[in-house]
Prior knowledge:
Layout: E1 2-3, E2 7-11, E3 16-21, E4 24-30, H1 33-39, H2 57-71, E5 75-80, E6 87-93, E7 110-113, E8 118-122, E9 125-129, E10 135-139, H3 142-150, E11 155-156, H4 157-161, H5 169-177, E12 181-184, H6 198-201, H7 205-213, H8 262-269, H9 284-294, E13 299-304, E14 313-318, E15 330-336, E16 345-350, E17 355-359, H10 363-377, E18 385-392, H11 394-397, H12 404-426, E19 429-433, H13 438-445, E20 452-461
Antiparallel strand pairs: 1-5, 2-3, 3-4, 5-6, 6-10, 7-11, 7-12, 8-9, 9-10, 13-14, 15-16, 15-18, 16-17, 18-20, 19-20
Helix pairs in contact: 1-2, 8-12, 9-12, 10-13
Amino acid sequence: MRLNDRVSLEAQADGSIAARFDGYASGLGKFNAVTARRAQDLRLGMALASFSSKSSAVQSEVALLVQRLADRGLIEYRVAQASGTADKVIIEPQRPDYWPRLPKLGTSETVVLSRFAYLRRRGNDLILESPRSGALFRICDPKVAAALVVLARPQKIGRFLRENSFPGKALLALLLDCEILFKVDAGSSGLRPDEGDNDLVLWDFHDLLFHTRTTEGRQANPLGGVYPYAGLIAPLAGVRPSWPGSAIDLRQFIPSSHPKPLSVQLLDQRRSTRDFDDQRPVTVVELSRFLDSVARVRSTWKTETDFGDDGPEVEYTARPYPAAGSAYELELYLSVANCAGLARGFYHYDAAEHALVPVSVRAPEFQAMLAAAEFAMDAHAPPQVLITFAARFGRVSWKYSSIAYSLILKDVGVLIQTMYIVAADMGLGGCAIGTSNIDLFAKITGISFHVEGPVGQFALGRGSSEESKPPA
Length: 472
């Protein structure tokens, strides 16, 4: 393992060590002088095996320092044939908890590439990655790329041992650990039903990729309003230039005395509220009314599919907002920080029973979810209630091909607008949040990220009286 190229370590006289990268500094804690000296070896690299033993205080401290660097995504892992030889692969963690593991591989076992694995160009590098993987692999040796082509079909490990282009059994184990490869039975085709559980079978490649690469938790790319092209391309105008031709002025058809419908008045009142009055929090009575208005199940029914008499029955619900195919795949989870009459905690909203069900959550993970929302809103405090939209992906992908994830995001937009309108009608403040951490949600709920996971968030509470922001 070694430090990422863009990272440097700075040791202070009091024993504090900080990592400096991309113009930022992150404190790593205080360590003894020997540990500080050994930490500089991370620039060239330290053998992973050296961390298996923590028999001395220095070894334990070095291991702690490396773990803290890894948690911040500042460590990468070099795979080579031997010390001093050229790199075959550089492994870049995409999750803070990634640590290379080498599962055992027998020569008679059969492996194949995941259907979610893909190669792409990044700058001058060739990258192998997968939305299922906790790390990506920067391919440095053309022989490795050639071996990957062969793995498009199931191959026995023993066959690779006899090939001149064999990239190394350890590398295959690393790829297996990252779910870029997976094991199959001898004679298996290695196609969709062989990889993962039934919930994974329902995912198309592009949908799972889009889900993981546009959320936090399973990728290490810059995310959010970082203005990546500010120095290259001028910003587009706020209003599109008009098309040529004679315009028909529609204002002439609206009488000046025409009263605005209530729906239009509520749309005019809509604001994104980022600061809340914690001296006057939203109440459980208001929260009950809000959830009843935006998401409560109104009715249920079953209908047969279009497969004839042998087709399964599908259950549907009706709720206040429209949803693609009446799937209503979105579940609401509430992180309650400050609500009069309701205990602080994490809840699932049972839309059929109009009830909140407590979900056990560890305090650090609960705080992390609220802190992420606070940061995303650029607010001074966390929201009083953070509502996370979690999709039961199979409700949509069981029916729709190629457009399943797109439909889910459209449903998210519809629900967000519904929440804005109801919040405005109730005199409450609300704010849509553009990011969510799918790995954090999985840890809190114990549900695999591909089964049910966050696709949107909405902050709710009583707005601060000083806040008066334009619509956003």
